[in-house]
Amino acid sequence: MPFAQIYMIEGRTEEQKKAVIEKVTQALVDAVGAPPANVRVWIHDVPKENWGIAGVSAKALGR
């Protein structure tokens, strides 16, 4: 059972997350031949203040 974990800065819409889940699932089906029903995708929404870029939080950078 393929299991993909996706970490993203918070703020994506439900529609965007749905698209990520669909496309990652299809990529795993294509790459390893897993049945779609066996693929799991977990999206981690990370608060902007908890995501660092070059020593600064994404929130401080206005991301």
From TrEMBL:
One Pfam family from the record: Tautomerase
Keyword Ribonucleoprotein listed: no
Which keywords does the record carry? Answer: Isomerase
User: What's the superkingdom here?
Assistant: Bacteria
Q: Which residues form the 4-oxalocrotonate tautomerase-like domain?
A: 2-59
Give its E.C. classification number.
Answer: 5.3.2.-
Broad enzyme group: isomerase
Q: Does the keyword Cell division apply?
A: no
Sorted alphabetically, which Gene3D superfamilies does this protein's record hold? Macrophage Migration Inhibitory Factor
| Molecular functions per Gene Ontology | isomerase activity
List, from the UniProt record, the residues annotated as the active site of this protein.
2
Q: Which family does it belong to?
A: Belongs to the 4-oxalocrotonate tautomerase family.
Q: From the Swiss-Prot or TrEMBL record, give the protein name.
A: Tautomerase
